[in-house]
Amino acid sequence: MYKTLVRPVVTYACETWVLKENTKIKLKVFERKVLRRIYRPTKRKDGTWRIKTNEELNRLTDNKNIINYIKAQRLAWFGHVHRRPDTSMEKKYMSGHPHKQDR
């Protein structure tokens, strides 16, 4: 549910984001809160409840956190832009010469 519903909405257009350290922390905290809500607390043998640890959540999600997902999306987008013709607007902006005229 998280990978198909929540993460795509949260990371919409993430290829263009500037990821500062405080943004990374906020995204990780959000991800953990959502995962803990989805996977719910675990009932112990004595009848008490406990929340899942980060290690348990990492195992459940195969160590694929939201920051690594964003980095993978950026690489995929870069590859897409790199394969575009040299005259495309995206490629001109990536090269740092958006107003250069072809002659």
How would you portray this structure in words?
By secondary structure, this protein is mainly alpha-helical. The chain has one domain (2-95). It is built from 5 helices and 2 strands. A two-stranded antiparallel sheet has the order 1-2. The longest helix has 19 residues, at 21-39. It starts with a helix and ends in an 8-residue tail after the last helix. The model has no long low-confidence stretch (mean pLDDT 88).
- Please state the structural category: mainly alpha
Shape: elongated
Fraction of residues in H or I helices = 55-70%
Rg, nearest Å: 20 Å
N- and C-termini, Cα separation? 51 Å
Sheet having the most strands:
2 strands, antiparallel
- The number of domains is 1
**What string, H for helix and E for strand, traces the elements in order?**
HHEEHHH
Number of helices: 5
User: What's the assembly state of these chains?
Assistant: single chain
Low-confidence segments, ≥5 residues, pLDDT <50? none
Total strands: the figure is 2
Tell me the β content. Answer: under 5%
Q: Which tags fit this structure?
A:
about 100 residues; two-stranded antiparallel sheet; elongated; mainly alpha
TL;DR of this structure?
This protein has 103 residues and is mostly helical.
